[in-house]
Every structure is written in C-alpha cells, then in structure tokens.
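User: I'm preparing a small set of examples for a lab meeting where we compare how different chains pack in three dimensions. I only have the primary sequence for this one, and I'd like the structure in token form so I can line it up with the others. Please keep the answer compact; I'll paste it straight into my notes.
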Amino acid sequence: EALKSYSDRSISVHFVSNIDGNHMVEVLRDVAIDETLFIVASKTFTTQETIRNATTAKNALLSHYAAAGVHTEGAIAKHFVALSTNANRFPFMSRAVRMRLSFRTKIRPW
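Assistant: Understood. Below is the structure token output for the 110-residue chain.
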C-alpha cells in the first residue's frame, strides 16, 4: 500500500503467502493465467507454503494450456521466475524455470 501511488494501475498484482488453498484458488480464478507471471520468492525454498503454492500455480498453468489444446512446452519458462538464496532448490519447481534470481542471505541496512 505504501508504494501504491507509484504503481502502474494497468498491472494487477496479487500476493499469496500462506498455505490456505482457498486463497490461491481465488487468485487463480481472478487472473488471466496465460497472461500471468508467477514470481516465487523464498529464502530457502524449503517451506511447505512455498512448495505447495508454487506447485499449485504450476499445475493450474499446465492444466489451462492442456485444456486449451496448447502445447505446454516452454510454459513454465514463460510464466515463472524463482527468487531465493538457495539456488540448489530451484529445480523443485522445474528445470524449465529459466529466470532464477538469487539474493544474499544477509541484507544490510543502507
């Protein structure tokens, strides 16, 4: 909310940060999944919430393309970005995630 005045209002942003499956279902219902970029951010990529939400989003995306008769190859690379300190855990989603960004484990105040 603090940065809302700087945002591009033509882009919708949704955050899912807990394991409540209903929250993810509601967000997936509200978005055009073929126009959605999923940014999966986790310090370690080991928390149950992160793994479950990322897997749910991935499965929804692949199901959407399959139902539309569209080949799913490349869909993960096009729609997912992974952000973590633990690059070794990125493959849990898929090796197809090409955009992998890492950050330091300690972030110092400026």
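A couple of notes for your slides: The chain has a mean pLDDT of 81. The chain has three helices and three strands.

User: Perfect, thanks.
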